[in-house]
Amino acid sequence: MPSWLPKALAVALALYGCFLLAEWAFHQLLGLLLNVLVAWFVALAVEPAVERMSARGMRRGLATALVFLGVLVFFGGFLALLGSVLADQVRELVENFPTYIDSVVVWLNDRFDTKLDADKLQADFLSSDWVRNYLQDSADNVWTVSTAVIGGLFRLLTITLFAFYFAADGPRLRRALCSVLPPARQAEVLRAWEIAVTKTGGYLYSRGVMAVISGAAHYILFLILGMPYAPALAIWVGVISQFVPTVGTYLAGALPMLLAFTVSPWAAVWVLGFVIVYQQFENYMLQPKITSKTVDVHPAVAFGSVIAGAALMGAIGALIAIPATATLQGFLGAYVTRYEVDPEAHTPSRRRGSRLLRWARESLGRRRDG
């Protein structure tokens, strides 16, 4: 046996053991790494507001706390309004459930000449095995749901704390990162950081502006239709349609449509038509004008980035996909050199082919003459 073979085997086994240990540690820390990534994007989003407040003489920590407090108050009020709407609608649905059953039974008896009894149907439904099994499963899953809610709150708290530290200690963090890099690399890192702050903050600003416009437009519609809880529904439509990627428009329009049925079926039709028309107006007129000044991402690129982010990191990837794509696009735009396109490339194929053929003949003739 060669003398180097045992040492090589020992080194190979050690490297394999280190790889297994690193893979295990990565899977164990994956949740924390995702939380840190989301917190970093949140810190980038609030960086412009913190910078403006600190530039006016306010301490950076206090400025960050005020910004986070404003965000917390906004989302807390939004959830409170939405919770009150859902609670009132559920209570109204439970109270009027027998009336709904009676109306459906009367309609079925009139249309199909049946002899259904509403009281018997309700009694059979409440005493059915399906209802008992469902209630039993729901009671058994209370602990699971409670654990998921507590885990979600802990994750939100973790993201908030990391984002606060990243935003409050942004300059110190950049200095610590650049201190281990040579001067040439420091300039590139700082430039990439500034691009990320600009693009992420611009994305948040553009979405906020469009959320305000969308909420105001739908609020006017809800007032005209006489729908209850018009302010809460308008805030719901504005926030969900802009900050939930891809499916946000459909989720935002579903709740007002369901509540519009309590007013009249035609009100639900009007809500559906307005949502469709406003979405086209936003996609083709409003969004290009606003995003062209903040973050310009093509709709196809945005959709593809959301799909890719969801496939890689789930819901978190879908949320941060668009600002991450805008940051990458801005970074590439700053470093990739672009050239002017020859006008011949825009001519029709036949004309372009004839010009190329004439150019080739002239070149060949010049070579022969030479």
Task: Describe what you observe in this structure.
With 370 residues, this protein is mainly α. It has helices at 4-55, 60-95, 97-112, 118-126, 129-140, 142-168, 170-178, 183-225, 230-243, 248-260, 265-291, 299-335, 349-369. The chain is extended. The model has no long low-confidence stretch (mean pLDDT 76).
The total of helices stands at 13
Radius of gyration: 30 Å
Task: State the share of residues found in helices, binned by percent.
Answer: over 70%
Low-confidence stretches: none
Average pLDDT works out at: 76
Strand content: under 5%
Largest sheet: none
Class from helix and strand fractions: mainly alpha
What would the principal axes of the Cα set say about the shape?
extended
Task: Outline the fold blueprint.
Blueprint: H1 4-55, H2 60-95, H3 97-112, H4 118-126, H5 129-140, H6 142-168, H7 170-178, H8 183-225, H9 230-243, H10 248-260, H11 265-291, H12 299-335, H13 349-369
Helix pairs in contact: 1-2, 1-6, 1-8, 2-9, 8-9, 8-11, 8-12, 9-10, 10-11
